[in-house]
Amino acid sequence: MGTPEFPDLGKHCSVDYCKQIDFLPFTCDRCLQVFCLDHRSYMKHDCPKGNRGDVTVVICPLCAKGVRLNPDEDPNITWEKHVNTDCDPSNYEKAVKKKKCPVPRCRELLTFSNTIKCRDCSIDHCLKHRFGPDHSCSGPKKPESSFSFMGFLSTNSKEAPASSSSSSSSSRWSSLLASAEASFSRLGNDISQKLQFASGSDDNSEKRQERNGKQNKVTVDVCPKCSKGFRDSKDLLKHIDKDHRGTSKA
């Protein structure tokens, strides 16, 4: 086997009727034997462990789930384990029954790529019936009107009979109306007080500005000869003594 220079080069095929020398042999990853190019596959050399890497999945007819068969285990045992532990018949309709377009006579299945939800009715439709006129859209739901206290009073006052036989019902309505009037009058008083406070604060700010303006006024004394102004009279006298030698017309 090999050559004189490379005696370990190449190996014989492990198949009995072949025994061909191959300089680039293949080693089976299951039985770990050496084979030539023609017998490298599991089927060609009848590998006893060739089916261990196969993945066989059987769909359960009860729950529509996939059951993986173990090569080292009897399929009947694997099936019994699934039925006793993981099988759920209620999942069959969810897995098998596919959602369709709700438009009559439309048999289009709704998948991830062809499903459009209507903005108005919030119902899924196919691409063909995605617009409102195509699926007779009912439009958006009308929001419920909010409760109005004054509307409640007006409607109930109209519905109340003019002459009530029961004095308790009339007294209850009168007390309710009186409490409503009192609350509205209290609200009006609060608003008027806030307006008066705001106007009073504006008047005070104007008076404060006038007072500050009066305080900021400065008297200036003018020299009778050179008409130079001085804020302090002492500075004016010093100026006259120094610059005009103590003589002035004033």
TrEMBL record:
Q: Which molecular function terms from Gene Ontology are attached?
A: zinc ion binding
Taxonomically, the superkingdom here is Eukaryota
The residue ranges of the AN1-type domain are 7-55, 95-145
- Listed Basic and acidic residues bias regions: 204-213
For the C2H2-type domain, which residue ranges apply? Answer: 221-249
| SUPFAM superfamilies documented for this protein | AN1-like Zinc finger
What keywords were assigned to this record?
Metal-binding, Repeat, Zinc, Zinc-finger
The UniProt annotation puts the region (Disordered) at 195-218
Role summary: May be involved in environmental stress response.
Q: Tell me the PANTHER family matching this sequence.
A: ARSENITE INDUCUBLE RNA ASSOCIATED PROTEIN AIP-1-RELATED (PTHR14677), ZINC FINGER AN1 AND C2H2 DOMAIN-CONTAINING STRESS-ASSOCIATED PROTEIN 11 (PTHR14677:SF27)
Q: Return the protein name.
A: Zinc finger AN1 and C2H2 domain-containing stress-associated protein 13
Q: Which organism is it from?
A: Cardamine amara subsp. amara
